[in-house]
Design a protein that fits this description.
Number of strands: 10
Oligomer: single chain
Shape: globular
Order of helices and strands: EEEEEEEEEE
Strand content: over 45%
Helix content: under 10%
Radius of gyration: 18 Å
Length: 188
């Protein structure tokens, strides 16, 4: 990789959710999640360009023990289109996978949990050519703040992976070694 040292604005994204079935009347909640984004730099190489993508999920969640234990299962389909500055080639990639998480209320409005995710990477937007896979494991934190505000933090470490044609035990070509996600939100 080129030695790219830059600190700059890298894009914008959003998140839309549609509850298909609310937990409460139903024992299992079902939510459709759509998270489009646009970036000005490639997060792996640091090079300038245009990147459009969307992380899409079908989320199933249930309450195992009232107000204490919760579980969720997610199906994930992610697409991205990248064109580096000055290049004519456009890279298209997709990922498919699933995740499972359990969380426990440890204090009023504070939840700690553990999640695992298995992901497969492909060239092309329609899961065309398999390029690698990864398994992640890590802790989660969710805190309900005043009103409708919330904060969530997740750290996932790649515990296993395989890039197509590479004997190494992790897939660091298609996936990060560590993924940290900090989110804050207001529901309305």
């Amino acid at each position: 990789f080129d030695d790219v040292r830059t600190f700059s604005f890298n894009g914008i994204g959003g998140e839309l959710r549609w509850n298909l079935a609310k937990r409460g009347p139903s024992p299992v909640g079902v939510t459709l999640h759509f998270e489009p984004s646009w970036q000005t730099h490639d997060e792996l190489s640091g090079l300038r360009g245009s990147k459009y993508g969307a992380e899409n999920k079908l989320i199933f969640d249930t309450e195992l023990v009232k107000d204490k234990w919760f579980a969720a299962f997610n199906l994930l389909y992610e697409v991205e289109r990248v064109q580096e500055k000055g290049e004519t080639d456009i890279e298209r990639a997709s990922k498919f996978g699933f995740g499972f998480a359990m969380t426990h209320q440890v204090a009023h409005h504070i939840y700690l949990g553990l999640e695992t995710r298995y992901l497969r990477a492909y060239d092309g937007l329609r899961l065309n050519d398999f390029t690698g896979e990864a398994l992640y494991l890590g802790p989660t934190l969710y805190a309900k703040l005043a009103g409708n505000a919330w904060l969530s933090l997740a750290w996932n470490h790649q515990v296993w992976g395989a890039e197509l044609g590479n004997p190494e035990r992790l897939d660091l070509a298609n996936f990060e070694r560590n993924q940290v996600r900090l989110k804050a939100g207001i529901e309305f």
